Every structure is written in C-alpha cells, then in structure tokens.
UniProtKB/TrEMBL annotation:
GO molecular-function term, one example from the UniProt record: oxidoreductase activity, acting on paired donors, with incorporation or reduction of molecular oxygen
Statement: the UniProt record of this protein carries the keyword Aminoacyl-tRNA synthetase: no
PANTHER family documented for this protein: CYTOCHROME P450, CYTOCHROME P450 82C3-RELATED
Location in or out of the cell: Membrane
Cofactor(s) the record lists: heme
Major localization class: membrane
TM region positions: 6-26
Pfam annotation, one family: p450
Gene Ontology cellular component terms for the protein in this record: membrane
Organism per entry: Acacia crassicarpa
Name assigned to this protein: Cytochrome P450
Annotated keywords: Heme, Iron, Membrane, Metal-binding, Monooxygenase, Oxidoreductase, Transmembrane, Transmembrane helix
Amino acid sequence: MDLTIFTQSTIPLTILGLLIFVYALFSISRSRENKTTPRKQPPEAGGAWPVMGHLHLLGGPEPAHITLGNMADKYGPIFTIRLGGHQTLIVNSWEIAKECFTVNDRTFASRPKLVAFEVMGYNFGMMGVNPYGAHWRYVRKVATLELLSNHRLEMLKHVREFEVRSAMKDTYDRWLGWNNINSGQHREEAKPLSCEMKNWFGEITSNLVFRMVVGKRFAETQGKDTIQKTLRDWFDLIGSFVISDALPYLRWLDLGGQERAMRKTAKDLDQFIQFWLDEHRQNRDDAGSGEAKPKHGDFMDVLVFSVDEAEMIDGHDADSTIKATCLVSVPFPYF
C-alpha cells in the first residue's frame, strides 16, 4: 500500500524531469547548430517594453513614419521591432525590398492574420487579406482572368461609356435648369451653380463598379443609404487598430468594443451581398443548368457559373468565396 502511494506521487515528478531533460537536449542541439551554421540576425531597435514592445514609441507625439525613419538612421536599412508579441521586420532600402519581392517573394507573400480580416473578411477569404495558399491562388486567378483582364474590360466598355455619358448629361441638365431660372436676372445677382467633383467622380465610380460586379447601378439600388453607411463603417473598422492584434491573449476582453462593432457591420453587409447572390443564383437556375458561362454578365454572374457550390477551397465554401471576392471590388472613393 505504501509502495503504491509512493509510486503514484513520483509519476508527476518523473514526467517533469523527463520534459526538462528533453528541453535541455533540444536547447543544446540548437545552440550547436547555430554555432556550426551561424546566421546573422538583423538588429532589434532599443527602447522596447516587456509586454508592449515598441508600440509606445509608434504611438508617441511624432508620426509613426518619422519614428521608423529615425530608427532606420540609427540601426541601418534593415532591423526588427516588436509589436506586442509579434516580431516585425522593417526594411528601408530599395535593394533589400527588391530582393524580398523577387528572390524571396513566396516568403513574403502572406498577410498578417488580423482580427478585422477574420471577422469582416469572411475568415481571411478576401483576396487582399487572405494568407498565401491554395485559396489565394485560386481567387487571384479568377479575378485576373474574369475581372481585370483586357478582354473583360473591353467587353464591358459600354458600361463605362454609359456611366460617363449619364453623369455628363445630369450635369448639363442641372446647368440648363439653372440657366432657365436665372435667365431674366443679372448673372452677378444669381446664386452660383457648383459641382463637387469628388462626389461627381465618386458617383461615376460607384455606379460603374456596382454594374460590373453585381449588375446594377448603385444609384438605383434599394437601400443605398444603408449600404453606403455600412460600407463606410466597414472601411473605418478594417483600418482601425485593435489591441488584440498586438496582444492576442487580450482578445477575449474586446477592449474598446471594436470586435463587437465589426461583427455587427459584417452581418449587416453580408445580408445585402447574400441578397444579390441569391438573385444571381435564381437567374442562373431560370436560365437552365445547361446554360454556358455568360460572356457579357457581371462579375458575380461569372463567379456563380464558375465556382462549384459543393467545392471547398482551403476551408472556404463557394458562397463565402464569391461574396468575399465581390466585396473586395467595392469602390473606396465614394464611401
């Protein structure tokens, strides 16, 4: 009885000792490997705090690019900083940057896994934010061939011409109405007619891109004011700084409530995109299963006919792939 109790009490100590022994062997082997094949590491900037790293320096009174420029003058063209728990490589030389994006392009092809990209980017499903892999290669191939190719742009030339002519006609009609109203007055006394060019180009861009992507003008879309507000919130949140990106173990606290706002915005925006996707799927079903891929259809039409509904690409289903790829094409200037 006493022997059994003694054995049971020594088991945890034995396991702990074994783990320490294995860790020691691993550390010794790594140190020997580093001595045999030494690799010069870039210097790390000074002034880091234990947990925050260099975040307090980037959030100081000077802009971040000025702070990084001063570090580059002190530590050279390549160095590292710590953003919370993440070590980050800083490059300030076009020769090194060229080598990163040519010789070692696959190493630097991935993207950081930020909370905004996960919550509002369909779990890293958007082409501009998803990590390098099978899904990124597939989406990039489809977007390059079916949206950004010269052949596709030439086929949709009539859309661009219509939107530009429509915008010019609306501007001319406004001027004509203003001219008729003030025809009997001195022009010096008449209220001047103004045209905000930022909004003018923004409306052309939004109508053009929405027609190319989802097949309808943004100005004629139902609930466009709500969509515009949701997209503005989406752009604001996806570019905001979230503490859990630097300190992942604090994510459960949701300091600042940003993740909660991201989930609400993602849900609201997904309802609109899902409605357009259902419309396109219904149009495809009405056209018949034997219908070929549309030649003059919008981008969502092409994706609906191209992406297999039952196919899973690196953990992403067809619906999320289509919606994420269309969302990344939304025009920023107007929103």
